[in-house]
């Protein structure tokens, strides 16, 4: 069917080409008869010039009609020949009129030829559309034919298996058994690879849990060391305040005591000061030791976390459980840092509270001392007044 369509299309194109050649030949012959140059004849054959000529001829009447009217008008006018010049003029005018008539006739013929060409072009467009539709139908039928052929092959193959149905069923069963054996062998191979992977995963999980417990223990140790360091700092602060208080009391002592008592008191104060300095130095040494130990444990904790992070991160790309363990480790590390920061903030707040309490206590003591001094002064004044009265 497709070949028939191609043959029809080819024959139509050849027929159209032959018609165009015949029309062009007739136009060229006509222009040769009226002595038109070949170049002008070829230009007249072109589609645009022919279209313009057809429009002029078909819309507003032909030049031949106008020439014919002019000829009839001239024939109707009375005239007479009055010499050889008039005869030559008449002959020349007659030949010009004949040439114009021939040109007009050719133009009319060209107009009809153009109409024929337009009809042929319309037919060609219609045939092209029909050929496109036929081509689409052919492609659809080809696809349907291919589908039917594949279905036919499948059915033919199934029908070919029917005469030896038992033998073919046995072959299919053998293939199914072979596939089942392959699946079993693949499953066994997977189990061989799976067992060591599971063991490795369990070992890594256990190591991770141990490291997490060690990390938690180290965090607890750091917390206890920091609490101890805060206590020592509080003791040092208390002793500094006590030292200041003793110095103030020393300054307030009566100056008219004996030299030995004064020297003894000074020795006691110096001894107390030395003891306090020794205790303060000891406290400072303990504080520095604790700070070094805290820094050491903090660095060790950071290094442990870094190593743990590298070990778990290396295996986290391959195993989902290890990936979750890595996330938990990161969360524990972050929470630990937040916990340490919270402990430090709490210690700072407690120190501020204790400082405020010490200030309150100092202010209270100052008021008590002032009251005692005022009462003592009043008592002395009363004694003096009583003595003066007795005298």
TrEMBL record:
It holds the Pfam family CCDC22_CC. Keywords: Coiled coil, Kinase, Transferase. One of its GO terms (biological process) is positive regulation of ubiquitin-dependent protein catabolic process. Residues 162-235, 353-385 form a coiled coil. Residues 1-21 are annotated as: Disordered. It comes from the Eukaryota. Residues 4-366 form the CCDC22 coiled-coil domain. GO terms for molecular function: cullin family protein binding; kinase activity. This is Coiled-coil domain-containing protein 22 homolog.
